[in-house]
Amino acid sequence: MKKTLVSTLALLASAGMAHADGVLNIYNWGNYTSPELIEQFTADTGIEVTITDFDSNETALARIRQGGHGFDIVVPTHSYVQTWISEGLLQPLDPEIVTDRGNIAPQWVDVDFDPGREYTVPWQWGTTGIAVNTSVYDGDINTADIIFNPPEALDGRINVIPEMSDVMAIAIYAAGGDNVCTTDMDVLRATRDMLMEAKPHWLSLDYGTIDNYVAGDILAGIYWNGATMRARLQNEDIAYGYPATGYPVWMDNAAVLADAQNTENAMIFINYILQPEHAAMLSNFARYGNGVAGSEEFMDADMQSAPEIVIPEELVEAGRFSPACPQEIQDIRTQIWTELLQ
Questions:
Q1: pLDDT category, 20, cuts 50, 70, 90?
Q2: Residue 1 pLDDT > 90, yes or no?
Q3: How far apart, in whole angstroms, are the C-alpha atoms of residue 322 and residue 125?
Q4: In this structure, are residues 265 and 47 in contact, taking their beta carbons and an 8 Å threshold?
Q5: Which burial class, exposed, middle or buried, applies to 79 when counting CB atoms under 10 A from its CB (0-12, 13-18, 19+)?
Q6: What is the mean pLDDT of the chain?
Q7: Which of 107, 175, 237, 262 is least buried, going by the fewest C-beta atoms within 10 A?
Q8: How far is Cα 197 from Cα 195, in angstroms, rounded to an integer?
């Protein structure tokens, strides 16, 4: 507590954390922002925060492209960041306000999607795998067959997140592809056929399903590791599997929109979440890693050994950081996804 207080006072004394008035509008994934962090930020800065949810990268990108949105900060996944930058939708971070990029853990600084972190800072990072209720399923949890060739016990009680990049990655790997941006049409056709054949065995394609897993209304699905951990903490039968055929590793990143109406407040917030104790608030709520060095000492002890965070050694190499695909391949993936949603 003493360390947190001293750190907060130091922040308030810095130029980038001067007490400011006004508002800040954040556009973020649903149920992903720590209320404790927002309350503390407002107390420290006087800036009132409004959060609007989205459920997929495609939804967020389409909304901002339309203009007239009123948002200041957005949180896209790494494989979409270059699209946001190339379309002029983000503005560079202000070095006079965002002074603490040195707190970013070394492996997350000179990233391919934003070299030198000119536009973005880490928000959270994690994996996408398989959530399953082990009270009704006692088989291998580290297999995509749970989703694409489901056992009778799970049939009709499966949810798939509506995030194309994650679902397509797991499906392509399960269909024999070794690259999410594969140009192998045989693999892409097999992926499409597998998805279409599996869909009748699913209950839904929905985003906010933690409570449904806890209640047992959903028994399995493609899900994120942090959300699965949150479900398990309320229902010990929930387990998280890492598909042995391959699963995505990702990082979501905070950025200031080019047409932000509250740019200074947005930059202040960006710098705020680079403080280890504040980054830990995000992790303690959403249950993901955060990419800020030194945050571990402020994180809940149960995250140090959680099976949703500590990947089994034999499955580490099956996790792959997905690149942004060339446009022609992305168009094919979008076509398959659109057909799946119909």
A1: low
A2: no
A3: 13
A4: yes
A5: buried
A6: 94
A7: 107
A8: 5
Residue at token pair 């900060």: 73
In the prediction, which pLDDT does 21 show? 72
Architecture of domain 126-249+317-341: 3-Layer(aba) Sandwich (3.40)
pTM of the model: 0.92
- β-pairing, 73-74 vs 247-256, is antiparallel
pLDDT tens profile 214-242? 999 999 999 999 999 999 999 999 999 99
Asked if 2-125+251-303 and 126-249+317-341 have one fold, the answer is yes
In CATH, the architecture of 2-125+251-303 is 3-Layer(aba) Sandwich (3.40)
Distance CA 9, CA 24 (A): 22
Alpha helices in 46-163 (DSSP H): 57-66, 78-86, 145-148
Q: Is 136 left (phi over 0), alpha (psi -120 to 50) or beta?
A: alpha
Q: Are 72 and 26 in contact (CB under 8 A)?
A: yes
Q: Strand 23-29 to strand 48-54: parallel, antiparallel, or no bridges (unpaired)?
A: parallel
Taking alpha carbons only, the member of 242, 223, 222 closest to residue 320 is 242
